[in-house]
């Protein structure tokens, strides 16, 4: 029986037991019917992966946006307005997943019959088991704290915790998924070229550090503004959870570029071996903080993101022979920029909060201040902040940019930041 079918059978018929485990009897309906999404997503995987293999991300994005619009805008919102409450979200999710399946299949039209044997099937099975084991471990590392919070704390706290996490995790996961797929497909063509893999990894590491870390630092500092502006002041308690999660999200992106480098360098089982000890470390940490306030659980969970990222980066450095000095040089500009932006945001936060204006305006003021400092720093100190590998790549790609953008790039990369490789 396929894994998806096993999962849906277990969840569908044991929804009551799952709801009892979380001491939330009202969640039985949600567990039972959302188990259908497991089967739908499993059926969608062949079409999704075939399109990723072809680097046809346009079709993937169109399918995602179209199915989201159909499920949530066309069906979910009308049902919610009509008074169906939580059921409207369940129905929306099922419709979104089902329509995504149909749209993607129509793009690929792969065979639908089962095959019990295929050439080199044993190798594919071993590879698939490695992927499955790695994904299960990553699921435990990512979701164990949610299980703990859902089991121990009241529904109010669970809602605050998961809302804060999902708010920063949703965009990060979307970027992570697309970034990892593109890097995996690109590096698959560079498997025997360690120098090229080093260049790709260091450029991406520098780019993520320069862009993602400062942005999420502003979100972390201004978490109260974010929650109040987006969800209302009654959700402001969730800011205590959003701050550590926002600061942890860039590490997820760095981890996302590490995995495809390792796999394409011929070390498909290394991630599994590295992450497995962390499961026991994570479970021990959760046991230690089980009686602590939920914000401590959030801080520990965010720290695990950073630890996993560091372990994976060190593994990549060892496999493709990157010195720690080269890694530091690629991230030092982003670190400095993040510290500057975070410091300015912290200094201005209380002054902005004291203004008698709407919370949305306060959020925009903080984002504007942080963004202005970021852009000014880039404009004045780009040669020192941008790693030479990334600078050289941007300089070579400058001719493909719109004409109006080329002088700006040349100005930013002055004084030879793109001179060395």
Broad structural category:
mainly alpha
What is the radius of gyration computed over CA atoms, rounded to a whole number of angstroms?
23 Å
Largest sheet: none
Helix fraction bin? over 70%
Poorly predicted sequence stretches spanning 5 or more consecutive residues: 1-6, 415-421
Tally of contiguous helical segments: 16
| Average residue pLDDT | 81
Strand content: under 5%
Q: Could you explain the architecture of this structure?
A:
This protein has 421 residues and is mainly α. The protein has one domain. The chain has 16 helices and no strands. The protein has helices at residues 3-13, 15-21, 28-53, 57-81, 86-108, 121-152, 155-187, 194-221, 223-230, 239-264, 270-289, 294-319, 324-353, 359-385, 388-397, 406-412. The protein is globular, with a radius of gyration of 23 Å.
